[in-house]
Amino acid sequence: MSDEVTQAETTGELDPLEQATRERDEYLDALQRLKAEFDNYRKRSARDQEAFVARASERLVRELLPVLDDLERALVAAEQHEEAQLEDGVRLVHRALADLLRKEGLVEIETNGRFDPHVHEALLSQPSEAEEGSVLDVLQKGYVLGDRVLRPARVVVAAPPPPEAA
Predict the structure, then answer these.
(1) Within the chain, what is the greatest distance between any pair of CA atoms?
(2) Is 146 left (phi over 0), alpha (psi -120 to 50) or beta?
(3) Residue 45: pLDDT above 80?
(4) pLDDT per position as a tens digit, 105-152
(5) What are phi and psi of 85, to 5 degrees?
(6) Chain-wide mean pLDDT for the chain?
(7) Domain spans of the chain?
(8) Neighbouring C-alpha atoms within 13 Å toward the C-beta of 4
(9) Per-residue model confidence as pLDDT tens digits over 10-29
């Protein structure tokens, strides 16, 4: 029997079971390496995503700091009861914040014209002589960032006028 084993070893022929076991071990090793590489990739991607979000937040906060400074100046003016300076300060802060958000891609939703359920939220319908379905009043402005509605405009919509009492 030892002659058979030595003959198989010298000719390079392996027992089919031993060959299948070796292949299995090679495939298992390759699969484990691939799994480890994928886990490392997933962890690296998560770290990169967190770093990206942190940098984006940092940039936005850095740009909001001047607005915070302006608010503090407005509060100091309010303590001194200088109404004109307070009003000017609040206008300055509002303008600075609106400009910053506009630069970031924030756009106010148009409310002139017909009601659009994709960007408007009807809180009330009010009988009116205006065309049915037109926007009568804006209760809260709505905004779009890029192609996404951040907040729909909350509006009052024209309903048909009430029937005349006979």
Answers:
(1) 119
(2) left
(3) yes
(4) 889 899 888 899 999 999 999 898 888 889 999 988 899 988 889 889
(5) -70, -35
(6) 83
(7) 1-104, 107-166
(8) 2
(9) 555 679 999 999 999 999 99
Q: What is the pLDDT of residue 9?
A: 53
Report, at the CATH architecture level, how domain 1-104 is classified. Alpha-Beta Complex (3.90)
Contacts of 131 (CB under 8 A, 6+ apart): 114, 158
Residue 128 is encoded by which pair of tokens? 């009116």
How far from each other are the two terminal CA atoms of the chain, in whole angstroms?
A: 118
CA–CA dist 112, 101 (Å, integer): 22
| CA 141 to chain CA mean position, Å | 20
Please state whether 34 falls in left (phi above 0), alpha (psi between -120 and 50) or beta. alpha
The one-character DSSP state at 161 is P
Euclidean distance between CA atoms 129 and 122, whole angstroms:
18
Nearest of 113, 121, 114 to residue 143 by alpha carbon: 121
pTM: 0.58
Q: Would you state the pLDDT for residue 95?
A: 87
CATH topology of domain 107-166: Nucleotide Exchange Factor Grpe; Chain A, domain 2 (2.30.22)
